[in-house]
Amino acid sequence: MAVENNDIPPDLWEECSSCHQLLYSKQLANEQWVCPRCGYHLRLTVWQRLAITADDGSFEEWDADLPLVDPLEFPDYRPKVEQARAKTQMSEAVLTGWAALEQMPFGLGIMDLDFIGGSMGWVVGERITRLMERCIEQRLPVVIFCASGGARMQESLISLMQMPKTSAAAGKLRQAGLPYISVITHPTYGGVAASYTFLGDIIIAEPQAAVGFAGPRVVEVTGLEIRPGVQSAEFQYKHGMIDLIVNRQDMHRTLEALLAWFDGTRRVSAATGRNGRPALVGEIDE
Length: 286
Ligand SMILES: [Zn+2]
Known about the structure:
The protein is α/β, with parallel strands linked by helices. It has helices spanning 25-30, 46-53, 77-88, 122-138, 156-160, 162-175, 190-193, 216-222, 233-238, 248-263, and strands at 13-15, 22-24, 60-61, 94-101, 104-111, 142-148, 180-189, 202-205, 211-212, 244-245, 268-272, 278-280. The strands form 3 sheets. Strands 3, 4, 5, 6, 7, 8, 9 and 10 form an 8-stranded mixed β-sheet that branches. Strands 1-2 form a two-stranded antiparallel sheet. Zinc ion binds at residues 16, 18-19, 21, 35, 37-38, 40.
């Protein structure tokens, strides 16, 4: 492109982080933020992910008001959270709630890498746990889009305790016979990868998503030697740890097929049912 970078209005064009091609934002949105030149999956905000996943207007947030836990009174932690909130329009690093996909109801979680690296502290662990527990009560399948740098170091041990807690919740979901679909997006590392990410009944990844236990910073600090490519979705797929690698543009129809396979008869209607939620078909006349 012959134009100088600083002549371009920032909202009109975006640069592909992989091939550095300048891309027209509107076209990129139509392509669901997959680079039409090289196929790289650009990072989505939670709100963009929600828009391409759930039926319009179907989402209802759960557990929005959980308080921040700061047991160590870690220096600058609270201001950092406030900054992340302003930047992302999120209250924490995961959004959870009720949603419908092609009228099929499910519990949805979407993680935000831009919120303190998508790190898991008490609120993230608690929201994931409550999401699974509510889905057991309401007999709903669960879909979680994972993205994380790992545990939130500002919350120390409390952060690490979220790993067994969320893993136990995933176990209860399995015992209740309810499906859990985990979707790995770039990158998913550390405590999140080592807990609910790999406990899905079906584990899907976006192409080229980095996934593993030791994130780049841990590798750098500890001097760990990890063979290049091992912590990638493709390697994990090849070795049986991931069930499907799905292009983002095929994700909606893949989730639709899976949810329909689990319980396609359970579609919601446009009418409002009990508790203000959209009614399940067959529930309307009760
Ligand atoms: Zn590209």
